[in-house]
Amino acid sequence: MTSLPPQPLSPLDGRYRAAVGELGEHLSEAGLNRARVHVEIEWLIAQTDRGFFGATPLTDHEKDALRQVVADFGQPDIDELAALEATTRHDVKAVEYYVRNRLTALGLDRIAELTHFACTSEDINNLSYALTVRDAVEQVWLPAFRTVIARLGELARQLRDAPMLSHTHGQPATPSTMGKELAVPAHRLTRILRQIESAEYLGKFSGATGTFSAHVVAAPDIDWPTVSREFIESLGLGWNPLTTQIESHDWQAELYAKISHADRVLHNLATDIWEYISLGYFTQVPAPGATGSSTMPHKINPIRFENAEANLELSSAVLDSLAATLVTSRLQRDLTDSSAQRNIGVGLGHSLLALDNLRRGLGEINVDRERLLADLDANWEVLGEAIQTVIRAEVVAGRSTIADPYALLKELTRGKRIGAAELAEFVSGLEIGEEAKTRLLALTPPRYTGLADELVDRLEVLE
């Protein structure tokens, strides 16, 4: 058997690349290296702007030329860094040499020794991860998340008046509307969205053990904590003033826990839609040319929701692991986070793939209102709750002497199917006020939805 040419090991980089490839712009090794170069160059500019050790500030032209290195970062740069790392056996040292090479090419050797000045590798890495994770979440994941929530909200408003039989414990229960039931996950997800939108992205820039030791020895008169804070904030990040060699990763744990929470609510949505499809409440729109089964030509399988379910489970598994492990580092530093953080893209990638499936799935279903009504008409016993509740109110008001209304309705309805005629006969014989009796006789399962329609108005509209 001949060997295959090199193949992607992960389906995210193979079969599903079209759906998640945009994340690679940020969370790939190349994206990380570009961010490292960005941080190193901005640190050079910050030092020369402050005139450290007599360095003259760079001209605007020189700054633009340095920043263009980041803007033009592409395959030749990726290859050059790979060759440098093959020699250095150290990824961040390779980045330092790469930047020095750019300084030489630009005639800026005079500031070469300010490259990576007073930095430990983690000073560069933690800021680079904060930048790449922030951009991946804000530019790629959040827009996909908002799209799913918006589609869910749109369906909720469209179907706000579509009465449906509820199924608590999988059994017929007090009716609702399909719109209200879809508004529930939309509301839950919107709340989580706001939490993720307000997430912190923190950084440290304080040397080998977080003490500014080398900084102070080199320049004891400089206010290094202020320099650190201002530099980190210039990158659009928050400053963590108290760390070991590494930034403590608490912000990452918080963020991944929130995204994993979103995954689980989305998982709940996917399984519920799957159930509604199996009940016939939703019909699926067949895609032209698509095949549902290799042997049963009639089938349209709910694969969008099944694929979403599987990928949400994988995403939560990775993100939960990162949230649990990244917050621990032995003493002042160990390298367990180095390998772990390289899987951030895997966790977000499976979530993004699930969002793509959900977006497409929610766009390929139609509600079957006739099926909803037929199911309601077959379950008049769900009005037992309404009847016993009205009787209790009548007893309190002195218009009835019925003892234990709940037991009375339990005897009538539990484990039984009764129709409109039987229920009307039962209500007509009740010892209750005429107004209450009239109200109950007018009640039908489709009309027994309470404020479900109005509750949809509680749903925030995403812009």
Automatic annotation (TrEMBL):
Where does the Adenylosuccinate lyase PurB C-terminal domain lie? 329-449
Look up keyword Ion transport and say if it applies.
no
InterPro entries on file: Fumarase/histidase_N (IPR024083), Fumarate_lyase_CS (IPR020557), Fumarate_lyase_fam (IPR000362), Fumarate_lyase_N (IPR022761), L-Aspartase-like (IPR008948), PurB_bact (IPR047136), PurB_C (IPR013539)
Q: Which UniProt keywords apply?
A: Lyase, Purine biosynthesis
The superkingdom of the source organism is Bacteria
Query: In what pathway does it function?
Result: Purine metabolism; AMP biosynthesis via de novo pathway; AMP from IMP: step 2/2; Purine metabolism; IMP biosynthesis via de novo pathway; 5-amino-1-(5-phospho-D-ribosyl)imidazole-4-carboxamide from 5-amino-1-(5-phospho-D-ribosyl)imidazole-4-carboxylate: step 2/2
Task: Note whether Lyase occurs among the keywords.
Answer: yes
According to its UniProt entry, the function of this protein is described as: Catalyzes two reactions in de novo purine nucleotide biosynthesis. Catalyzes the breakdown of 5-aminoimidazole- (N-succinylocarboxamide) ribotide (SAICAR or 2-[5-amino-1-(5-phospho-beta-D-ribosyl)imidazole-4-carboxamido]succinate) to 5-aminoimidazole-4-carboxamide ribotide (AICAR or 5-amino-1-(5-phospho-beta-D-ribosyl)imidazole-4-carboxamide) and fumarate, and of adenylosuccinate (ADS or N(6)-(1,2-dicarboxyethyl)-AMP) to adenosine monophosphate (AMP) and fumarate.
Task: Supply the NCBIfam families for this chain.
Answer: PRK09285.1 (NF006764)
Its name, as the record gives it, is Adenylosuccinate lyase
Ranked from the top, the taxonomy reads: Bacteria, Bacillati, Actinomycetota, Actinomycetes, Micrococcales
* Gene name for this UniProt entry: purB
